[in-house]
Amino acid sequence: MSGIVSDRRRIGCDEHGHPLVGEVDEHRRFHIRLRARDADIDELGHVNNAVWVTWIQDASVAHWLTAARPQDRDRFVAVVLRHEVDYRGNVRAGDEVSAITWVVRAPRGARYARCVEFHAEDGRTIVASLTQWALVDRETGKLARVPVEVAAPFLSDDTAQKEIG
Questions:
Q1: What are phi and psi of 151, to 5 degrees?
Q2: Closest CA to 108 of 68, 163, 162
Q3: What is the C-alpha separation between 165 and 146, in angstroms, rounded?
Q4: Are 103 and 70 in contact (CB under 8 A)?
Q5: How crowded is residue 108: how many other Cβ atoms within 10 Å of its Cβ?
Q6: Residues 62-115: pLDDT tens digits?
Q7: Kind of pairing, strands 125-137 and 111-119?
Q8: How crowded is the C-beta side of 136, counted as CA atoms within 13 Å?
Q9: Which string of DSSP letters, residue by residue, matches 112-159?
Q10: Contact predicate 155/104, CB 8 Å
Q11: Cα(5)–Cα(8) distance, rounded to whole angstroms?
């Protein structure tokens, strides 16, 4: 599909193409803050469900772009296989939420599971998701088994020891 130009923002990046800024904690979870804009609001006056799914992907991809080794970011891309989302609360335009995302366990083949939780300013979990992802080799376009060294930056030491070693 060369020659096609999109004016759409890259998932996990700001409007200039730079990875969204967040922090990786000692458990290798990624933390990021997001603010609801007027364009994110539906007819009920709160963030639309489709926006939450975009934010799930933003947090997940920003984690990948922040923690993965450069050679792995260049070689692989992840695709969503399935989203499960539980909505427990709402936010309105101007409200900020904090998102935390982590890889649940060591990958199996090309697949891995990732949780994303969104917390309101008072600390309540307002949206929680479990997403199944698969790793794809950019050159071949085919699913690729997740190598241990690619998974390592995303797994807590406890998870890595139990499941990889």
A1: -75, -30
A2: 163
A3: 15
A4: no
A5: 11
A6: 999 999 999 999 999 999 999 999 999 999 999 999 999 999 999 999 999 999
A7: antiparallel
A8: 11
A9: EEEEEEEE-TTS-EEEEEEEEEEEEETTT-SB----HHHHGGGS-HHH
A10: no
A11: 9
